[in-house]
Design brief:
Layout lengths: L1 H16 L1 H13 L7 H22 L14 H27 L8 H19 L2
Helix pairs in contact: 1-3, 2-3, 3-4, 3-5, 4-5
């Protein structure tokens, strides 16, 4: 029952909290070529990460499983989610700095952009395993 409730809550959050952004991100991520990223693609990637980060942070605020509540967070998932959030935040901050330094221009942080995309996907998958 606990897993079903959390799966429903996570699915709801992903569906209404970031699904459109994640779909936009996937399209933008697939169209980036060369050694530069457009500012629009970077903004979509940042927004997609922010959406899943909010869901992951909400998950981390749940009490640990085994302490009684029906809705809880599992240690194995927490161990995956925390480093992904930290890595994503570092990538997001680096991309934001790149956008600030080059307003309206393509930026050459392709690897950081791709890392953020991979982190966003891994975070989504980690939360969906519940």
């Amino acid at each position: 029952m606990r897993k079903l409730l959390l799966a429903g809550a996570t699915a709801f959050a992903l569906t209404f909290g970031g699904c459109a952004e994640l779909q936009k991100f996937q399209v933008a991520f697939e169209t980036v070529t060369g050694n530069v990223v457009t500012p629009q693609a970077v903004v979509v990637a940042i927004n997609s990460f922010d959406a899943i980060e909010a869901t992951a942070t909400s998950y981390l605020l749940l009490p640990r499983c085994g302490t009684g509540p029906i809705l809880c967070r599992e240690a194995a998932i927490t161990a995956k989610v925390v480093p992904l959030i930290r890595a994503g935040r570092a990538d997001r901050n680096q991309l934001k700095a790149g956008l600030r330094a080059n307003p309206g221009q393509n930026i050459s942080l392709v690897q950081v952009y791709e890392d953020l995309g991979n982190t966003t996907a891994a975070l989504t998958a980690s939360l969906a395993t519940k």
